[in-house]
Amino acid sequence: MIATTTEEVEKVLIQAQASVQEDNFSISMREKNKEFLQQFGLKRKDIKGIVQALTNKDFCEKRKSISKFRKEEVFIFAPTVDLVDNFGTKYKHLQVYLKFSFVEKSKLFVISLHLPTEKLKYYFRKEE
To answer: Which tens digit of pLDDT belongs to each residue from 56-107?
Structure first.
């Protein structure tokens, strides 16, 4: 994990939210992501909504990309959202794992969007 500040995360959020507002984003169609999007019937507008609602309190960590093709930083957030699955079951305050980076300087690239596979720690929240 790379140390960061509230100000840096705020800048990242402004950039991410501007990217989705301008529809300048893409999502990796990895199997976990596809399953999550299908399970909850999520569309592009729903992903925009999740990113638009992010705050620095949702921030978990910043890492260097492990890809040999990319050298950018990746940002991990864990917002809680209300969702309804394909069977009509409502989920309140469901924690979601969201990992993204920026490509081509300003395009948001969502690497992961799915349910967490491990316990996540929030960077700017006190442990409860």
So the answer is: 999 999 988 766 556 678 999 999 999 999 999 999 999 999 999 998 878 9
Sketch out the chain's domains with CATH numbers: 6-114 (3.30.2310.40)
Task: Identify the CA nearest to 60 among candidates 128, 4, 117.
Answer: 4
Measured in degrees and rounded to the nearest 5, phi and psi for residue 43 equal -110, 180
Whole-model pTM: value is 0.91
How many angstroms separate the CA atoms of 101 and 2, rounded? 14
Reduce the secondary structure of 59-100 to three states and give it as a string: EEEEEECCCCCCCCEEEEECCEEEEECCCCCEEEEEECEEEE
